[in-house]
Design brief:
The complex is a heterotrimer of chains A (343), B (329) and C (164). Chain A is of the alpha+beta class and 343 residues long. Chain A has 11 helices and 12 strands. In chain A, the strands form 2 sheets. An 8-stranded mixed β-sheet of chain A has the order 3-2-6-7-8-9-1-10. Chain A has a 4-stranded antiparallel β-sheet with strand order 5-4-12-11, with no helix packed on it. The longest helix of chain A is centred in the last third of the chain and has 19 residues, at 288-306. The radius of gyration of chain A is 22 Å and the shape is globular. Chain B has 329 residues and is α/β, with parallel strands linked by helices. Chain B has 3 domains: 3-114 and 160-172, no CATH class; 116-153, no CATH class; 183-325, no CATH class. In chain B, the strands form 2 sheets. In chain B, strands 1, 2, 3, 4, 5 and 9 form a 6-stranded mixed β-sheet that branches. In chain B, strands 6-7-8 form a 3-stranded antiparallel β-sheet, with no helix packed on it. Chain C has a single domain (13-160), classed as Rossmann fold. Chain C has helices at 22-31, 53-61, 82-99, 117-134, 147-152; strands at residues 13-18, 40-45, 66-71, 107-111. In chain C, strand 1, helix 1 and strand 2 form a beta-alpha-beta unit. By secondary structure, chain C is α/β, with parallel strands linked by helices. The chains are: A alpha+beta (343), B alpha/beta (329), C alpha/beta (164). Chains A and B meet through helix 8, strand 11 and strand 12 of A and strand 2, helix 5, helix 9 and helix 11 of B.
Amino acid sequence: MKYLPLAGLNAFLERAAQSRKVYVPVDEEPGKSSYRLWTPGTVVSRGLNTTRSAKDFFFPQTENLAGFRIEDKKIRVLDPRRETEDFAVFGVRACDAASFGILDKVFLSEPEDTYYKNRREHGLILTMTCRRPAETCFCSVFGIDAANPGGDVSFTDDGSGWYVEAHTEKGSAFLSGMEELLEDRDPSGAEEARNKTREIMARLPLAGLKTDAFGGGKTKALFDRPEWAELSEACVGCGTCTFVCPTCQCYDIRDFDTGREIRRFRCWDSCMYSDFTKMAGGNPRLTQKERFRQRFMHKLVYFPENNDGEFGCVGCGRCLRSCPIHMNIVKVMKRLGEDDHEQ
Amino acid sequence: MRYDEIFAAMLKRAKELLADGTVNRVIGWKRGEFSYDVTPAVFETPEELDAGFVYDAFCGANVSKYLIRESEKPGRILCFLKPCDSFSFNQLLTEHRIRRENVYAVGIPCEGMADVKRIRAAGIDGITGIREEGERFIVSTLYGEESMDRREALAERCLCCKSKRHPVFDELIGDEGEDAPDDARFAEVARLETMTAEERFDFWRGELSRCIRCNACRNVCPACTCENCVFDNPASGISQKAAADSFEESMYHIIRAFHVAGRCTDCGECSRVCPENIPLHLLNRKFIKDIDELYGAYRAGDKADARNPLVNFTEGDAEARIVHERGKA
Amino acid sequence: MQVKEATGFVPTIVAFCCNWCSYAGADLSGTNRLSYPANVKIIRVPCSCRVNPIFFLRAFQRGADGVILCGCHPGDCHYTTGNYYTRRRMTLLFSMLDYLGIERNRTRVEWVSAAEGQKFAETMRSFAEEIAALGPNRRLADLRCRKDAEEAGITDERGSGDAV
């Protein structure tokens, strides 16, 4: 099996950066990292997840869709799309890697979202196993294996380097030019590293979270549960949980008048906002309770209902860390799942 | 007073006030999964209090804003206010946003609130529980027990605490505290003021460009209480759901800070909740410092009948050109 | 007359003028045939106090290089005290813009009475010269709205980049 020692990382990224842009997690301040473009000298974060998720690469917060310009009494439609340059994202964890599958189901099902597809086709996902999962991690609850993150190429971390494996054709093609930067190692070391990760995953405090009460077909059982009122009571209605979430994919389309043309762009929207899905005639979710419920019902019931039982959460734990009042999907699942109210 | 002593007194008093009918519910903090993740919550019975009520170094969330909604409900609500919270509460009373008669306010001491971000920044991760032992936090983690100096873990706002006094309360637990000197609070603002405009511009671009426009700073702010914010109102012409460019980032933060100028009590909630660790308090404190220097010392929330300096004037006020004439450009 | 630097840069200047004093002052300077730069765009407001900080920011967003607010002299406000509030509000706004590193001379408040046609013209001339010397507004500009930025190919739009 191929192996990349810690000391060889810079040379590896340098080679990778010759053919594409490479984004790596960088520590902005102790305990907080974000993805940055790799340039010589960039120090890759050894911490866990970035504050924002890797979905930003494929579904950015704002994205220009079209432009309109009036010329000689005619409206000209401008298409700002261009072929995205190839890029690679290094250090994607299993949770974020799994989130792409969820986003694909939304954006690549008919009708295909060409903006998303463009970015997706040009993006190479280099995943990494987790050596020190956090207390807020619960990806295993949704069947995600932090020791086997998939992606195009996976990097299995053993503390002093990574066992490198391609999982897709795109990944193999990428690695084929890197051969001399990689060593050959016995694969047993990779398995050992994986087992270590799995052993920690099994004893995480949230590993025992039950999903039985949720999934497709549970709308009736959950929608009118009285607990929603108490769970949503302290929600301040900000969009933090939805914006750091790797699977939240709601957006709004807005126009901006520059004075010379109209720019039509989309931007992330949040079901927690009071003007979410506001339309002529009003807003279907009038209070924070209903907006709050929408977010969790979507992830835990509506999404699996439409996608063969797959949950819309990957257990990355970002919302647990970022929520101003520490209300989150784990507390919701515990409260609603603790006793079964099914009729 | 230690937190466990304060908490015991609070629990006892809450049960008494519920029992004698003074109040019909209690707003406080509810225990979470890992010590640090407490959630503001309303409790209605002694059993609910026993099950989840908590007060310790992680109850930084300011509950005063919830009282706008809670004081409209039938009955009277008991709230426990830390000094910071009571300034916010008093400011809301000044603005007639809370029905005073529906709130029973108990002032509680605060020994400084910890910020889990600072514990994580010290390299401690996998936090499953935190307890206080004297001047240290003992942190149990997935990877063994760690300990750190209590002061190192305190939130920025607590390191330069403005006051341990409660400007408003119905009763107090513990002894009343005192105002603290302001020097530390404005040190960072003063440092920025001595930079060149270019340096300041670069500093703020670096900070504000991380903004994800989640609106947490606005929504958590006890001074931001508009029914429909200008940034959510399509008729305002500037409604935004995301910052499309750097101008929109700057605009949001200037207007957010300006709108609470003269009303901001510097409770520091904006900086606490920012997922991107943007030092938003430095914008609010700039206004506070300017107001103090130009129009005389003023502390929002200190006196319920005080007049906000932005809806007040004197004939001899400085002209706007004072900004152009002072310091470095 | 347009104030033009050697570079050919003609700044766009927005002047908010109160209806009762400064707008009449501008009128007087016109009737007296006093010239002031044509690139000053006057927006009439009922009182200087009508101008809230968003007006300033919006002017900068939509392409202004400098924004000036003119009102009655303190004590002469048609509504008695409006301009006193303006004075505090604008002082704090300007101070905040300065704190954020925006060039401090892009904003100004000037009191111009209905009888001060001369002062109005002089104020506008000096302000326009100052802004021309500062060059185009970049730090507090929405580049989407600026033709000069578009022509120079400068953009900071989040939605047009490749990735994060």
